Amino acid sequence: MKGSHGTTKSREESIRKFGWHVGRGRAGTGVYFWKECEHYVQLAIGWYKRALNEKRYRNDSNKLCTVIIADLETEEDEILDFDNRELRSNVYRMAKDRGLSYTNTREISSLFDLFISELQVETGFKYKIVTMEVAPPGSEYCNYPVELLGTPICCAVRDIESIDIIDTLNC
What pTM was computed for the model? Predict the structure, then answer.
């Protein structure tokens, strides 16, 4: 599987020098990529623009947009696909049972981490990549045709050894 990751030139240089920094997001802890599709570079640029607008890059010395294209390498049984309705229903029930907010990103991320940890124990599989549909960055940042294509697929890479950078694009 291939993915795109939008960031700044400073961060791309840091990734190459020191490695990836995992963060918290909609599908738990990981490094986030847009799964390869016709628009995956535009989605990465849109994410960069949104993060830039939200001042997430305020301390970066070189704020120029860079899209990292990577092979996301793992075995098929190490990918957890949250497009499975039963899995999503189980996560919803877990959130409801714990009285968690459905809008707090930190709580959602922690919930997914807990759910995945419990599922790994139950199944005996280690999930290195989690895939799920997520909303695109927004029409003001990216011209992604949601009405035609539906929501794009995001990959949260939990095992950074699964990431092999194959190209970078300056935008």
Answer: 0.94
